[in-house]
Amino acid sequence: VLENQDLQDSIKPQKVEFRSLNFNSTLHWQPGRAREARDTVYFVQYKVYGQSTWQNKDDCWGIQNHVCDLTNETSDIQEPYYGRVKAASAGIYSDWSLSCRFTPWRETMIGPPMVTVIHSNKSIILKLQAPHSPYKRKRGSKIPMTNYYDLLYQVFIINNLLDEQHRVLVYEGKDKVIKIEDLRPGVSYCAVAKAYVPMLDRSSAYSSRQCTVL
User: Where would you find the membrane-spanning parts of this chain (predicted)?
Assistant: First the structure.
């Protein structure tokens, strides 16, 4: 019995946590402290905080991965959720390992906007597009993150004559089309943007650089 108890403890999953980007929410864990046996498999359940019964996640029942997609199961983004994982090896089952409480609206990371640059002779026009959530409207198009948050865009210009890290904030607001004027012809300018959620004081990563020479 003691050996079984040891095996149970040693295969128990560690560090169970939700990770989420634009409401694409996955549960992650690490194998137990036993060097992972080839035949170790994992079982995932989830529930809304306050519910008494756990739901099995069928696609993540007896899997060998250390990640399980719970995007559809956590689509009520204001609700707090829990996930839990147990492991089995050689017919022995570990106890469940529990995640922290996860509320998608509070905790998902926002992705950067997409930036398109159009240039005229002394100005550049930037078009910004908010990232999309995985959830769809009735007609099938994906719902943008601006539906869920009061997003501001922050636009920075990198003037390549200067240091790459020297980003100058040239715009903050909600406009999707921004004109930056009085730029010098013949100079290469790059733009990057972030999405910012004032209510949560949280920023996305920078978008990829879009460069143009006037």
Answer: none
